């Protein structure tokens, strides 16, 4: 149903926002000017990862195969830098900071999704 899909979307956006906040706490060269920037960055990162990242992964498949998948980390860093470029209130200074931030965001997102399982939410209705 529509409510179910909206719930999953909101959980995934919350996971993205939390992962961004964790990265900002770990790296002093990643920061937000305000709280709205965190939410906007989470939404834009989700959009970039949904629509642009798969295309970039396919286009860079040969180099990704040669590096045994490690180039994916570079792609994730570039997506994070792109989001910081698109949103003036979200800052990621330096390529290596972006690589570290992307790694942290990937790990935190993976762990949160593992525990929350937003795609396996079950809603049961009991009738009295």
Written account of the structure:
The model has no long low-confidence stretch (mean pLDDT 90). 73% of the residues lie in helices and 5% in strands. Strands 1-2 form a two-stranded antiparallel ribbon. The chain contains five helices and two strands. The chain is globular. The protein is mainly alpha-helical. Helix 2 crosses helix 4 (71-86).
Strand arrangement within the widest β-sheet reads 1-2
The count of helical stretches stands at 5
| Spatial extent as radius of gyration | 16 Å
Largest sheet: 2 strands, antiparallel
The pLDDT mean sits at: 90
Strand content: under 5%
The strand count comes to 2
- Shape assignment: globular
Distance between the termini: 23 Å
What distinguishing features does this structure have?
128 residues, two-stranded antiparallel sheet, 5 helices
């Amino acid at each position: 149903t529509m409510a179910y899909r909206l719930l999953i979307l909101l959980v995934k956006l919350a996971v993205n926002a939390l992962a961004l906040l964790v990265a900002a706490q770990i790296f002093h060269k990643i920061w937000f000017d305000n709280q709205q920037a965190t939410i906007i960055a989470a939404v834009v990162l989700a959009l970039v990862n949904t629509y642009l990242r798969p295309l970039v992964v396919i286009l860079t498949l040969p180099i990704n195969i040669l590096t045994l998948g490690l180039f994916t980390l570079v792609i994730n860093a570039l997506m994070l830098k792109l989001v910081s470029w698109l949103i003036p209130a979200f800052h990621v200074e330096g390529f290596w900071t972006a690589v570290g931030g992307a790694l942290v965001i990937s790990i935190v997102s993976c762990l949160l999704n593992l525990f929350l399982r937003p795609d396996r939410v079950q809603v049961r209705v009991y009738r009295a």
